[in-house]
Amino acid sequence: MKLKLGWQKRLLASGFLISSVMFVGACSDPGANSGAEEASSESLSGEVLRVAIGTQDQVINTAVGGATVRELGLLEKHLPTTGKYEGVEYDMQWSSYTSGPPITNKMLADQIDIGLMGDFPAVINLIKFQQEADDADSIYIGTLAYSPNGAGNAVVVPKDSEATSLADLEGGTISVPFGSAAHGMVLKALDDVGINPETDVTLISQAPEVGGSSLRTGQIDAHADFVPFGELFPFRGFAKKIFDGAQTGVPTLHGITVRSDFAEEHPEIVVAYLKAVLEANQIFRESPEEISANIEEWSGIEKEVVYMFLGPSGLQPLDPTIREVHVEALKNSIATLTSLGKIENPVDPAEVTNWIDESYLQQAMEEMDLVYDEVIATAEAYQITGEDALTGEAIEDPKLAAQYWVQGEETVTNFASIGNMLEALAALQAEGKAADVMFVHDRNNGWKLFAENSYYVSNGDEVSAFLLESDAQAYAAETGGQMMAFRGLQDRYAKGRQPTLVGALVGGRR
């Protein structure tokens, strides 16, 4: 599904957005994207134009629209400087927040023009503008990164906790940022395993940094959060993941909202911003390790975690388009927020389509000579490819590949199989070297995992990895295999016992 809503056709009536949405299957229609040309031709020479963007540097799903665009000066590269914009001085104002609500508050106060946020905050943003603002509406104009099944949201517990599943948390205290996508995820997940979130556990609201501190000090039994903290805390060594949002099967995303008055007055600037996002996506695909290392400098989030989410075969594909899966994520957010009592006045989930305007993105693609469907195909093809670093064989199935990132090296090393990776890892360690991270994938679902934090089943010469201990136990019982830890597998290879490991185990270089 492709959504198109020309800004030139948008009308404001009684503070509500009245618009039409066209569902089309072909690439963008240049004739429907002439808003920039129809905008006022009055010269703005000598004026100072504010462009205020609110992002979330630590929430790395916003990196391609936030820190990468900001630090590489990509927006300045694309800002209009001719026609009515000749002689204009741009006042670029970037601000970063730990969550979406502060961005919405500043957008309502006309202090931020473009805001980057997750699906739940985005829905609140859109509704608040519609129901509370008299001077403008908010429009959803593009996606930053997303998961079709909910990967990225997660529940973690202290590293030494005996809990291995949500069922073990009954009677405990779980913290989560209220009103976030993780909040909706944990409510559904608890209900799915028969735990009443109102009576069987104590839910408290904590921001990511507070939740991490509470885990370290044992003040809570578990913490639920969004990208990247479900992977970041285990990577830092003080937590382990017991539930992945992908287990819910509910899509999640981070996207771009803009004030309608800003978009209508300066559509060329909105198009320029989306061109910068498109270029940031391309830069990331071409040099994922380099940009991941840069994002570590800009955000403080380790490059290995950034790469896990946004690198090839990562947990969160980079795709700026707005399709059915993204609309579904926003609709699900409305339903969950309504059940939480976070929406005072009822909102029909179908209203989502009236908030979406993809014409700015289509115009940006046209001006960059990009084809809509090819942009989608490029995003979907961003998988692990190349040759096995040990054997030279082609990496034909990215879900059977493996990778490690050697300390001090600039790029990731890839293998066609996890067995080859372990063999190379044993040789690497024998030379006194080490890898900062190793990646595998869950056998049942293909979710990308940190190798050291996964559960394994050895069945003869075959070894499979799992996110959940219960899944590993079930597979071991089914096949007669033996459960093993990653360290045990490493010992096998160090001793020269090299079984062939198979299963959905992923890592890899482009």
Automatic annotation (TrEMBL):
What are the entry keywords?
Answer: Signal, Transport
Kindly indicate where the leader peptide sits in this chain. 1-26
Q: Which InterPro entries match?
A: SsuA/THI5
Domain SsuA/THI5-like residue range list: 153-290
Query: Per its UniProt entry, which superkingdom is the organism in?
Result: Bacteria
Which CDD domains does the UniProt record give? PBP2_SsuA_like_3
One Pfam entry name: NMT1
The answer on whether this UniProt entry bears the keyword Signal reads: yes
Q: Which SUPFAM superfamilies match?
A: NosL/MerB-like (SSF160387), Periplasmic binding protein-like II (SSF53850)
Looking up Gene3D superfamilies in the UniProt record yields: Periplasmic binding protein-like II
> What is this protein's function?
Part of a binding-protein-dependent transport system for aliphatic sulfonates. Putative binding protein.
In the record, the note on similarity to other proteins reads:
Belongs to the bacterial solute-binding protein SsuA/TauA family.
Q: Which PANTHER family match?
A: ABC TRANSPORTER SUBSTRATE-BINDING PROTEIN (PTHR30024:SF45), ALIPHATIC SULFONATES-BINDING PROTEIN-RELATED (PTHR30024)
What's this protein's name?
Putative aliphatic sulfonates-binding protein
Q: Which gene encodes it?
A: tauA_1
